[in-house]
Amino acid sequence: MTATVSFPIDSPHGPRTATVAYERKGAGEPLLLLHGIGHHHQAWHPVTDVLTAEHDVIAIDLPGFGLSGPLPHGVPYDLATVAPALGALCSALGVERPHVAGNSLGGLLALEMARGGLVRSVTALSPAGFWSPGERRYAFTALRAMRTGARALPRPALERLSLTAAGRAALTGSIYARPARRSPEAVVAETLALRGATGFDQTLAAGAAVRFTVDLPGLPVTIAWGDRDRLLPRRQGVRAKQAIPGARLVRLPGCGHVPMNDDPALVARVILDTARTASPAPAPAEAVIS
User: Fold this and answer.
1) CA-to-CA distance for 215 and 255, rounded, in angstroms?
2) CA 67, CA 59: separation in Å to the nearest integer?
3) What is the pLDDT of residues 92-117, one digit of tens each?
4) pTM over 0.90
5) Which residues contact 132 (CB under 8 A, 6 or more apart)?
């Protein structure tokens, strides 16, 4: 069940309030799940039940996406603002240094949170930020085309298309290797999420100059890439490994850009394996009674 939380964030204009929608279940060490641009937290549903067996799982709609409100007027959607805001979200939810798994934009944000010392481990699935200039232009052009298509398609036509495997491939084939496996209801919901994403344009604009080049020594980091990723080619994973030499680079056979639906068991295993390599969270200090 989706809930919302409001919390203060720092901005160039002083403290502001952000409101984020999230779904939380399970028990254990906290695990924060971050989706990609134009998507919503339901992208993680194929793997959530497996992850909750070991973790307190918090899947969020990023600010300006899904059911979350946009960032306050004038607050930028850049890494320097959004990553600390996610740290503030964790504090509002009573969570300190969670494990974080992110896909695409979410993977880049997870790595940026790690750079700020806000996480316990990172699993980045096809993270943004390791592209060449040409690859970035291609990806941004494809994303804008997807957004334009989602906004132009009347809902009755969208619902009809979603009922056939060919229609689901036309709607989501650029992000899934196996779009026919996605349910009609999920395809309609994620297309509507892309259509209504208030933070899409500003997020894309903020990413124009982004390249992640910071090493993260001493932190468990896994970079995982689908070998059928049509949006961000898997050679970008090699660049990610060069930037973060201590990271584990994992190939996801048969998976596209959003691999959670293409191979849920494999993706869940990669996330769990990464979290298991992290040092246990420190136990709360015991009160001393004199």
Assistant:
1) 26
2) 12
3) 999 999 999 999 999 999 999 999 99
4) yes
5) none
